[in-house]
Design brief:
The protein has 271 residues and is an alpha/beta fold. Helix content is 45%, strand content 17%. It has one domain: 3-Layer(aba) Sandwich (Rossmann fold). It has a seven-stranded parallel β-sheet, with helices on both faces. The chain has a two-stranded antiparallel sheet with strand order 5-6. α3 packs parallel to α4 and α4 packs parallel to α5. Bound molecules: NADP nicotinamide-adenine-dinucleotide phosphate. The site of NADP nicotinamide-adenine-dinucleotide phosphate (NAP) has 28 residues, from α1 and α6.
């Protein structure tokens, strides 16, 4: 039987990976709180979770670009029912337009904010709230606190055609690792997930080949298993773990040429 996850908050639950994660959590959560922006898709995910797990489900539209409002919503949520598990599955995978020589400042700001600033700030707030709580237990088992950040394998290397995306995910990875080390003595596990390609509409909006693509359901299963095992870093599919080791070992001119050659025939996918 899966360990009880308590009150689970999932950000990006209106997205495809977020929906798959919510369905995975539905059976072992006492309360599932779903955040995203699109109210219709959130309501649909909430309904699917109720049917799948019979658990209580709340859904709220929260725009991470308004950080003050998002922090207030998080505090309010946590005051009402303390959050035991949070999964940051929100994110933007935008790349620059074909006509642009590099990312526009507006794109840089948006990607940093949604992919790095907001999850880091919300994660910091929640970690400190979790650490301040007395240790409790569910039915004799120690009550665990989990924080999961969905980064990207794109954060492993510079991406000349998706600089802000790669940098925002690299920043998030460094933050997650720092938070993990700091929170360990408080019994809070922090897991960073760096996926390669997941078969979602967002991934298909970015042109170019997508080797070793896996389904959101398989990805969600792997993420939940890593979280339960309190793994520091999950990279999937496994060839991306190899890429992470090999790329920095290459001489810079060879690495730069290789990274330049990976550039897809760029088109805009801005929303
Ligand atoms: N798919 C891949 O190949 C892949 C690979 C590596 C990493 N990832 C990461 O995995 C995560 C999920 O990706 P996905 O493919 O499932 O993408 P997706 O279907 O587009 O989901 C993205 C989620 O982020 C939410 N979001 C975007 N901007 C937001 C904002 N300003 N405020 C609040 N929520 C916002 C979206 O909400 P709305 O739709 O309601 O606006 C949606 O719920 C992302 O962090 C992504 O970077 C994906």
């Amino acid at each position: 039987m899966d360990a009880f996850l308590g009150h689970v908050l999932i950000l990006g639950a209106s997205g495809e990976l977020g929906t798959a994660l919510a369905l995975e959590c539905a059976k072992s959560a006492s309360l599932l709180t779903l955040w995203g922006r699109d109210r219709k898709r959130l309501a649909l995910t909430a309904e699917l979770c109720r049917k799948a797990g019979g658990t209580r489900v709340n859904a709220h539209s929260v725009d991470l670009l308004d950080l003050d409002a998002a922090l207030a919503a998080l505090r309010d949520e946590d005051d009402r029912t303390p959050i035991d598990t949070v999964i940051f599955a929100s994110g933007l995978g935008d790349i620059r337009a074909a006509t642009d020589t590099f990312d526009h400042p507006e794109l840089v700001s948006r990607l940093y904010h949604v992919n790095c600033v907001a999850p880091s700030a919300l994660g910091a707030e929640l970690a400190q709230r979790m650490a301040a709580r007395p240790q409790q237990s569910w039915n004799g088992d120690r009550k665990g606190h989990h924080i999961v950040f969905i980064g990207s394998a794109a954060g492993f290397a510079p991406m000349p055609f998706a600089a802000s995306y790669a940098a925002s995910k690299a920043g998030l990875a460094r933050f997650a690792d720092s938070l993990r080390i700091a929170m360990r003595p408080h019994g809070i596990s922090v897991t960073l997930v760096s996926p390669g390609f997941i078969d979602t509409a967002a991934a298909h909006r970015v042109p170019g080949p997508k080797p070793f693509m896996i389904s959101p359901q398989r990805g969600a299963g792997a993420i939940l298993a890593a979280m339960r095992a309190q793994k520091a870093h999950l990279i999937f599919p496994w060839p991306f773990a190899l890429i992470r080791l090999v790329l920095p070992a290459l001489p810079r001119p060879i690495r730069d040429r290789l990274l330049r050659s990976l550039a897809p025939p760029v088109r805009s996918n801005r929303r």
